[in-house]
Amino acid sequence: MAYRAAFTGLGEEYGEFFEQGMVVVFNENAPAELAELAALHTISVLEREVKPGDEIVLGNKRYTVTAVGEKANDTLGKLGHCTFIFTGAAEAELDGQIVLKGDGMPDLKAGDPFEINFR
């Protein structure tokens, strides 16, 4: 069981969040005002909630989930939306965050994979 999507593009303001250590994702059909902030991806079905210990693939990098905000699974399932932060913290600071541990931030481009491998 896994979540498989592909990135389709980056919004004009994506870099502002990236510079703050965050990657905001949305389904490619997001409204324009949200799409401009995000890495957009194809629509996929979230078959179960993301949990600590799961693996997230963003482009050519793999990360381990260390924490999941209270609303992150809901928005990821409905809108393909969450905010990834790369601190490896044991708790998410905000409800919509998924915290990841790994080697730096991803360098995303259209066609790159976005996958969740459930453990």
Can you tell me about this structure?
Strands 1-3-2-6-7-5-4-8 form an 8-stranded mixed barrel. Strand 4 and strand 5 (61-68) form a beta hairpin. The protein has 119 residues and is mostly beta strands. It is globular and about 30 Å long. The relative contact order is 0.28. The mean pLDDT is 97. It has helices spanning 14-18, 32-35, 72-79, and strands spanning 2-10, 22-27, 39-41, 55-58, 61-68, 82-85, 97-102, 113-117. It has 3 helices and 8 strands, in the order E-H-E-H-E-E-E-H-E-E-E. The termini are close together. 14% of the residues lie in helices and 38% in strands.
List its salient traits.
8 strands; 3 helices; 14% helix; globular; single chain; mainly beta; 119 residues
Strands, helices and their partners?
Elements: E1 2-10, H1 14-18, E2 22-27, H2 32-35, E3 39-41, E4 55-58, E5 61-68, H3 72-79, E6 82-85, E7 97-102, E8 113-117
Parallel strand pairs: 2-3, 6-7
Antiparallel strand pairs: 1-3, 1-8, 2-6, 4-5, 4-8, 5-7
Summarize it.
The chain is mainly beta. 14% of the residues lie in helices and 38% in strands.
Low-confidence residue ranges: none
- What does the main sheet amount to? 8 strands, mixed, barrel
Radius of gyration: 13 Å
Broad shape: globular
Query: Strand share of the residues?
Result: 35-45%
Terminal-residue CA separation: 9 Å
The number of helices is: 3
SSE order: EHEHEEEHEEE
What structural class should be given to the helix and strand makeup? mainly beta
The largest sheet has its strands arranged as 1-3-2-6-7-5-4-8
